Amino acid sequence: MSESATGLSEVEAASRLRADGPNELPQQRRRGILRIGLDVVREPMFGLLIASGVIYFLLGDRAEALALLAFASVSVLVTMIQETRSERVLTALRELSSPRALVIRGGQRRRIPGREVVRGDVILLSEGDRVPADGAILSCDDLLLDESLLTGESVPVRKAVGAQGPLPARAGGEDLPWVFSGSLVVRGNALVVVSATGPRSEIGKIGATLGAIENTPPRLTLQTRRLVRQVAVAGLTVCLVAVLLYGLTRGDWLQALLAGLALGMSMLPEEFPLVLTVFMAMGAWRISRARVLTRRAAAIEALGSATVLCTDKTGTLTENRMRIAELRAGATIARPGEAADLPEPCQTLLQFGLLASAAEGLDPMDQAFHALAALLPAAPGRRLVRSWGLRPDLLAVTQAWQEEGKADHLIAVKGAPEAVARLCGLEGAALARFHADLDGMAQAGLRVLGVARASSPGTRWPDSPHGFDFIFLGLVGMADPLRATVPDAVRECRTAGIRVIMITGDHAATARAIAHQAGVDAGRVLTGEEMERLNDGALAAETRTVSVFACILPTQKLRIVRALQADGEVVAMTGDGVNDAPSLKAADIGIAMGGRGTDVAREAASIVLLDDDFGSIVQTIRLGRRIYDNLRKAMGYILAVHVPIAGLALLPLLLGMPLMFAPIHIAFLEMVIDPVCSIVFEAEHSEDDVMRRPPRSPATPLFSSGLVIWSLLQGGFAFVLIAAVYLLGLERGMPAEEVRALAFITLLLTNVGLIFINRSFSTSLLAAVTRRNPALWFVIGVVLPLLLITVRWGPAEALFRFGPLHADDLAICIGAAVILLAVLESLKHRWRTMLTS
Question: Of 147, 443, 619, 643, which residue is 20 to 30 A from 8 by alpha carbon distance?
Answer without folding.
Answer: 147
